[in-house]
Each structure stands twice: as C-alpha cells, then as structure tokens.
User: What shape does this take?
Amino acid sequence: MVSSPWRAALDRLRPQRTERPMYALLGELAELQLQATDTHSKLLGHGYRERTRIAPKLHEQSTVAEELCRRISERLGRSLVTPYEAELLDDFALTIADSLDAMEHTGGLLTGTEVGPLPTALLEAAKGIERAAELTVAASWTLSGERDLGDYYPQMRKLKRQGERLVRQALADLYGMSGSSRELMALRDVIESVRATISLQEQAARRAELLRVKDA
Assistant: This one.
C-alpha cells in the first residue's frame, strides 16, 4: 500500500479538474452569444421547415448560457472583486444570457406561428446583432482591465440606433404587406422580439461601461 506522503505526491502529479477562471467563463459566454446570433440569422432567413430544424439549437445555446451564468455567479461569490464590480459583472453575464433567451423566443414565435418571409430590414437588423456579438466577444477579453474596453460602448450604442431604425422600417413594411390579421400580428411580435435582443445587447455593454467609470 502506498504511504500517505507518497500518495500525496502522486496526487499532485495527476491532472487536476479545475474550474475555468471567471473572466474565461465570461469570454465563453460571449462566444456562445456570437454562435447564437449566427443561428438566429439563419433562423430568420429560412422558411418554416428549416426553421423547425434550426430552432432547437437556439434552445440548447440558451440553456448553456444559463448554466454559464450560474457558474459565473458562483465564481463571483468567491472572487476578490468588490461587491460593486461583482454586481456589474453578474449583470453583464445575465444580460447576455437574456439576449439569448430573447433570440430563442424569436425562434419560438417563428416556428409556433408559421410566419412567412420576413421584411428585408429585419434580416439586416439580424446582421447588426451578429456584429454586436462580435464586439462583445472582443470586450470580454479585456474586462479584467476595464480601461482597455476602448470604444466598445459607443459602437454598441451606434449599432442599437441602426437596429432601431431597421426595426421601425420593418414595422412600416408590415403595414404594406398582405396576409391575415393573425399572420401580421405574429410578424409584429417577431419584430418586437428582435428589438428586445438589440436592446439587451446594448444593456450588456452599458454594464461594462459602468465598470470603466468605476475604474476612472
């Protein structure tokens, strides 16, 4: 039988299962959001049959995001950051997860109501959502040094304004479309759900900006 000192030495040599650092988890969450925005764009751009195939992937991504938020919250509870920083980082993570939930909701509306082709402006808004997710990934790499966030928030504000204009254009296009009142109301719900995703992405950036203000 191996004596306890030798056992301890052997245990130290074995690969250890360790939790990823908190900022790495935030980066993983941001990367997941980027993947979800790609799924979201494909969902909006396809017809009903393809949407039913794609939508479950958004559900899986949203579920993983919730689990990542739980792990991030646990790590924050053991971290050395101030309570104010912990609250902002937790809100940052939760708001990203909420954006995935909003995208999943959009998918549910599209598959549940069998809405047809969407206004071009809404597809353009989805591209803006992808770009916002790319910026969030880049920002997540610098959260540990808030002064390095650069113009992340101003760029996100710009994307939000562009997205809002496209959403308004999609709503205007809606009034010129033919179809049953049920289908048109369902399409309006989809447009508003896309608007919610745009808003949540900007809110996440605002949390990061507050970290920079704290550090100034």
